[in-house]
Specification:
Length: 496
């Protein structure tokens, strides 16, 4: 899958980054010493950060150098064109955030034979067209169509000439024509458009994307990403020919000038399922009960009670805890997004200990969980940060805002203090796509956890008592020591 391969290879780039001299020649030398697929993926990631708007071909040139330097400058570093390991880490993190925020995943269209990356969270499928398939955003401001035009109907060259010709209501601002593909972009009836097609043996196939100018900042880079990821094979189902020809640009459905919605939160889980994950639910998983998604949880008793988020287990046919098998749902608090599970015949040596003291602003915290299940599998991750605010969105005093990074799959995991005691349950993070559209900037580690007091209330409603140890009996520990404590109680929760 493009998403997984991209993140894996981007992560591999971290090992290849070494500082160098602050000039064009040093940047070129450093860049060309990377493997070809790493060079391509580096350019790809710079597209998503809006620093690079050219072909991701792995070839170093002035645009690549400028993009590297611009990224460094935007992050407050000296613009050398050579990324340090720390700078690479920032680039990888920002790219991963963008892909997750927009739901960028591969689309394989058997109707037209095209494959490309698309923002699935932005668009919904509305049906087939005479030449392919069509997607549209909920407010009509973004439209996407795939298309396949048989050569017997319109030749490759004639199609280009027709689409590259300006009309009173249609202005063309950019074109490129190659033997195997062409690109046309511009503005049509007040909407931006970008079209890329490839020439095959029997047909010209590709996609057309159009959008309202108010969404230009994000859509122009999405168009470049889609363009660079486009792969065309001959369609397995031929597009039906029709008399005459009309532009394959998307039709213009309902539009809206409404302002973006207020910032919202996105659950940090569930993550897309790991195909090889084990676990179960109230019914033993089987090949007919595949893992749909996964999140995190933690033991809250010695006899197998597990706390997690309600949204992790909501609408699941069965639920499981990796390493412990099927789990039974005992109770939920939908308002505070909490749930309590019970695994069968489990004896736990170290359930989580609840903190007695109230959380403090600026207090160091640790998050444990199983993020990005498709990429990381059942690997436990640990991140550190602090309490940035004693309230959540809109001043909600039931939540805490923390800077410890979280990703899809972290939901339901424990938020611990430096004694290893529970302060809260990770629930969500600020929605990247909405925040970006509103402010033009990605939120930096704006994450939320529900206070542990609400989990205490849910447990007591189920006749369960949280485990407390007086604070003076637990010394503050290093991050590594807290991780050692937390990993004994933190588990991966699977939804089937």
């Amino acid at each position: 899958m493009w998403f997984v391969r991209t993140l894996v290879l981007l992560s591999a780039l971290l090992c290849a980054a070494v500082p160098g001299r602050a000039d064009y020649a040093s940047s070129r030398l450093w860049f060309t010493e990377l493997a070809e697929d790493q060079r391509v993926l580096l350019q790809f990631s710079l597209m998503l950060t809006d620093d690079y708007a050219a072909l991701a071909d792995g070839v170093f040139g002035r645009r690549t150098y400028t993009a590297l330097a611009d990224f460094q400058r935007r992050k407050g570093y000296r613009a050398t064109g050579v990324l340090s390991e720390r700078q690479f880490a920032q680039l990888v993190g920002e790219t991963a955030q963008m892909m997750e925020a927009l739901g960028i995943e591969s689309e394989d269209d058997d109707r037209t034979g095209v494959s490309f990356l698309m923002p699935r969270k932005m668009l919904r499928f509305v049906g087939r067209t005479a030449r392919g398939k069509r997607w549209i955003s909920d407010d009509g401001s973004v439209e996407l169509e795939t298309l396949s035009v048989p050569h017997r109907e319109t030749s490759y060259v004639d199609l280009y000439e027709r689409l590259a010709t300006e009309k009173p209501t249609r202005q063309v601002t950019y074109t490129t024509f190659k033997d195997r593909y062409f690109i046309v972009s511009g503005e049509n009836r007040g909407r931006k458009f970008y079209l890329r097609v490839h020439r095959g043996p029997l047909a010209t196939s590709g996609f057309s994307l159009s959008w309202s100018p108010r969404r230009d900042q994000i859509l122009k880079r999405i168009a470049v990403v889609m363009s660079n990821s486009l792969v065309v094979e001959e369609p397995r189902v031929a597009a039906a020919p029709r008399p005459g020809f009309s532009s394959p640009e998307p039709s213009h459905g309902p539009s809206s000038d409404r302002t973006p919605a207020p910032a919202r939160v996105t659950p940090a889980a569930p993550a897309p399922a790991v195909p090889w994950s084990t676990g179960g639910g109230s019914v033993q998983p089987s090949p007919s009960s595949p893992v749909r998604s996964s999140g995190s949880g933690f033991f809250i008793s010695f006899d197998g009670h597990v706390a997690t988020n309600h949204h992790v287990v909501d609408d699941c046919r069965s639920v499981g805890v990796v390493g412990y098998g099927p789990a039974h749902l005992l109770g939920v608090d939908e308002t505070r997004d909490l749930a309590v599970l019970k695994v069968r015949e489990a004896t736990i040596s170290r359930p989580v200990v609840f903190a007695r003291a109230e959380p403090r602003l600026g207090q160091d915290v640790v998050v444990l969980g199983f993020p990005l299940g498709t990429l990381m599998g059942d690997a436990l991750t640990v991140t550190g940060g602090n309490i940035a605010s004693l309230s959540g969105i809109g001043g909600d005093a039931h939540d805490l805002q923390v800077t410890a990074p979280v990703q899809p799959g972290n939901s339901g995991g424990p938020l611990l203090d430096r004694r290893g005691a529970l302060l809260g349950v990770v629930t969500s993070r600020l929605d990247d796509a909405v925040t970006y559209e509103m402010s033009g900037a990605l939120p930096q580690n704006v994450n939320f956890a529900v206070r542990s007091a609400h989990l205490t209330a849910l447990m007591r409603s189920l006749d369960l008592e949280p485990l407390h140890v007086p604070d003076h009996e637990i010394p503050e520990r290093s991050l590594a020591d807290v991780a050692d404590i937390g990993k004994r109680s933190t588990v991966q929760v699977t939804c089937h």
